Automatic annotation (TrEMBL):
Lineage, highest ranks first: Bacteria, Pseudomonadati, Bacteroidota, Sphingobacteriia, Sphingobacteriales
UniProt keyword list: Hydrolase, Signal
Pfam families noted in UniProt: NAGLU, NAGLU_C, NAGLU_N
Domain Alpha-N-acetylglucosaminidase N-terminal residues, every copy: 26-106
Species whose genome carries this gene: Pseudopedobacter beijingensis
Signal peptide: 1-21
Name of the protein in question: Alpha-N-acetylglucosaminidase
All copies of domain Alpha-N-acetylglucosaminidase C-terminal, residue ranges: 463-726
Glycoprotein among keywords: no
Alpha-N-acetylglucosaminidase tim-barrel domain residues: 121-454
InterPro entries named in the record: Hex-like_dom2, NAGLU, NAGLU_C, NAGLU_N, NAGLU_tim-barrel
Length: 738
């Protein structure tokens, strides 16, 4: 039996290895057909061997065709993307694309050759699977995998469908369906379930979900592998059902708590013999079901400090985790998110001595450290480039799927290339994107991805003008002026931590400047920023048919309006405490009117519709109970985040049509009604009393089944112009005081 299993493992591993080491011509051609269906016959695909560890591609015109040569599907796709961007002003982004191509494809006069200086190009964060990907079907996954390949990503995190493996493993150990119902979270919370932070919340998980997503994972992996990617699959982290302590009372199990007032979860100590046993069984079952590419993600202390600070203990823990992988798969490579070293929980705990002890037992070439937040908290700099291990420079950028305009453009343009020449870089092996949420700020992500095939710093102004041309189809002078301002305001380098500044409108109502996870202070002058809005409005008639421009003008208008909401709230607080009842009542109505106008603006683009998010969730349901569960998951994550007494409410801070009008505006109306009544009665405002009331209201909203539109309403250009006429003269003169 053991011999038969090992033979199966070797065969499956061999198939997977061949998938990403050789070019699958048929798969590459199919991608070309999906991307440019009217022109795919004008392209030819050829194999080009690697040079050392570097992926490479070439592009040339030959015999009336564009010949794309590369060592695998990612290289071929990148060659296609390079040609389309540089020669056809073609670009695909999450939010707005320009797919216009000349009828006659431009000829390449001299052969183009590119090699990637980065062996590994990583993509995704556990959180992305919740904040953005929770409800994706195969069609949406197919689009994203194509986008990954076009942009040179070769190492995506692939954790869909692991519930089916855990179900099989734990049931073989005697756990019941009830035990697992108290273990698996709902789909929107898998990210924190996978990272050992919570159990059960948002569940019970239906069997239909487990079965359907096992099938979905097989499609995802097959497509990624045939294009030459190296999917990173999960490994055992020690997370066990809470009934484990009763079933195995002699086992060494640690009860640990995350945050947000969630119940403790249970972690099997890696020094317990059962840790290796379960870890090995999980990898065996996973390999049988999904195959392997030998790269495994395991993060055992995500936002949780280890129970002991003894370096010997930390060494033993790491050795046990790696050995449990290696025993099943001798080619195992451990991929580790370095968030544990940079999060607020870990920065003080992980001294150099402890970190070195933790990393030491894994061979240098068998560990990949994801420096998860390099653009803001680079850990490689004070760890000698992580002490000889491979490490990847990552841009985290986004928290919670917040859609605020934000990014450190100049630093992103320079730093990944600069580190290539840094004498302290250690075993710098790649770059990556590790955002919590996607489908926002396409500019900053396309900028970062231009480092994949480039070893030189990017000339930001020149690059931005090319981006404008690709995105809008023409280099319009007013658009150029708008982007010059954007680069010097929302996209200028800054000291902001934890992503974009939020607007107070999406925080729980208060008279304070900030509200829980809603931090509103700007690092730029809003009066300067809105000049970009003015220039985009001037470009509108010329660029109105551009999908990318339509998105951008709505997004910039949105940002101007939500910043103005923060300014209004600060003025309202002053007016309230001054006892000016008439002005307070008048200005609160103006605030609510602003939110309704904002909702109407957002309704013009599908990118900003709450209804799409909710309906995508409900599509996975097979009965009414599942529909209700998935709707709860979808609404809860982007609003309360958890239960009524959660301490991270409004973390996602999204301005979406439906959410603004029905959730944010409704909360603020209640706040204004109650505070005005207090003012009329000459009573002091009691924020604690209000929050007790509003938590119940929020919980009712989360649990209420409602239908939100999945279709757009209104023309984005027309509504943006209307908002500009109505608000720009005032906003342009408004200072957001601290």
């Amino acid at each position: 039996m053991k011999k038969s299993y090992l033979l199966t493992l070797l065969l499956v591993s061999s198939v997977c290895l061949n998938a990403f080491s050789q070019l699958n011509v048929a798969a590459a051609k199919k991608l070309i057909q999906r991307i440019v269906p009217q022109h795919y016959q004008n392209f030819e695909v050829k194999y080009l061997p690697k040079t050392g560890e570097q992926d490479r591609f070439e592009i040339e015109s030959k015999n009336g065709k564009i010949v794309l040569s590369g060592n695998n599907g990612v290289a071929i796709s990148s060659a296609l993307n390079y040609y389309l961007k540089e020669y056809c002003n073609f670009e695909i982004t999450w939010n707005g694309s320009n797919r216009n191509i000349p009828k006659v494809l431009p000829v390449i006069k001299e052969k183009i050759s590119k090699s990637s200086p980065h062996e590994l190009r990583y993509y995704l964060n556990y959180c992305t699977f919740s904040y953005s990907m929770a409800w994706w079907d195969w069609k949406r996954w197919e689009e994203e995998i194509d986008w990954m390949a076009l942009n040179g990503i070769n190492m995506p995190l692939a954790i869909t469908g692991q519930e089916a493996i855990w179900q099989k493993v734990y049931k073989s150990m005697g756990f019941t369906d009830k035990d697992l119902q108290e273990f698996f979270t709902g789909p929107a919370y898998f990210g924190w379930f996978y990272m050992n932070n919570m159990d059960a919340w948002g569940g019970p998980l239906p069997q239909s979900w487990i079965d359907s997503h096992k099938d979905l994972q097989k499609k995802i992996l097959a497509r990624q592998r045939e294009l030459g990617m190296i999917p990173v699959l999960p490994a055992f982290t020690g997370h066990v059902p809470k009934s484990f302590v009763n079933k195995f009372p002699e086992a060494k199990v640690d009860s640990v708590n995350w945050q947000g007032n969630f119940p403790n979860i249970y972690m099997l100590n890696p020094n317990d013999p059962m840790f290796s046993k379960i870890g090995e069984q999980f990898l065996k079952e996973q390999t049988k079901e999904y195959g392997t590419d030998h790269y495994y993600s395991s993060d055992i202390f995500n936002e949780l400090n280890p129970p002991s600070s003894d370096p010997k203990y930390l060494y033993d823990i790491s050795e046990k985790v790696y050995s449990s992988m290696k025993k099943v798969d001798p080619k195992s490579v451990w991929v580790m998110q370095a968030w544990l070293f940079v999060s607020a929980h870990g920065r003080k705990f992980w001294t150099p001595e402890r970190m070195q002890a933790f990393l030491k037992p894994v061979p240098d070439d068998k560990l990949v450290i994801l420096d998860l937040y390099t653009e803001n908290r680079p850990r490689w700099k004070n760890t000698e480039g992580y002490y000889g291990k491979k490490w990847v420079w990552n841009m985290l950028h986004n928290f919670g799927g917040n859609i605020g305009l934000f990014g450190k453009a100049q630093m992103i343009a320079n730093e990944p290339a600069r580190v290539l020449e840094d004498p302290m870089k250690g075993n710098y092996s790649g770059i990556g994107l590790t955002m919590e949420g996607i489908e926002q700020n396409p500019f900053i992500y396309q900028l970062m991805l231009d480092h994949v095939w480039n070893s030189e710093p990017i000339e930001l102004e020149k690059w931005t003008n090319k981006y404008i041309t690709r995105r809008y189809g023409v280099l319009d002078n007013n658009a150029v002026k708008a982007w010059e301002i954007l680069l010097n305001t929302v996209y200028k380098d800054n000291n902001k931590d934890q992503g974009a500044p939020e607007s107070i409108l999406s925080g729980r109502p208060t008279f304070a400047q900030n509200s829980y996870w809603t931090w509103t202070d700007l690092y730029y002058d809003n009066r300067e920023f809105v000049k970009a809005w003015d220039y985009l409005i001037k470009s509108a008639d010329k660029l109105k048919n551009s999908d990318g421009f339509q998105y951008d003008i709505v997004d910039v208008t949105r940002q101007a309006m939500v910043n103005y909401a923060t300014a209004l709230q600060r003025q309202l607080a002053y007016t309230y405490y001054a006892g000016d009842m008439n002005t307070y009542e008048k200005e609160s109505k103006r605030f609510l009117e602003l939110l309704s106008d904002l909702d109407r603006l957002l309704a013009t683009r599908k990118d900003f519709l709450l209804g799409v998010w909710i309906e995508d969730a409900k599509k996975w349901a097979t009965n009414n109970a599942e529909r209700k569960l998935y709707e709860f998951n979808a609404k809860d994550l982007v609003s309360m985040w958890g239960h009524k007494d959660i301490t991270i409410n409004d973390y996602s801070a999204r301005q979406w049509s439906g959410l603004v009008e029905n959730y944010y505006k409704s909360r603020w109306k209640i706040f204004f009604d109650q505070s005005l009544q207090k003012l009329k009665n000459n009573e002091a405002w009691d924020q604690a009393e209000f929050e007790k009331y509003i938590k119940d209201w929020e919980w009712n909203w989360v649990n209420k089944q409602e239908v939100y539109s999945t279709t757009t309403k209104g023309n984005p250009i027309d509504v943006a112009k209307e908002m500009h006429t109505k608000y720009f003269p005032t906003i342009a003169k408004t200072t957001i005081v601290k």
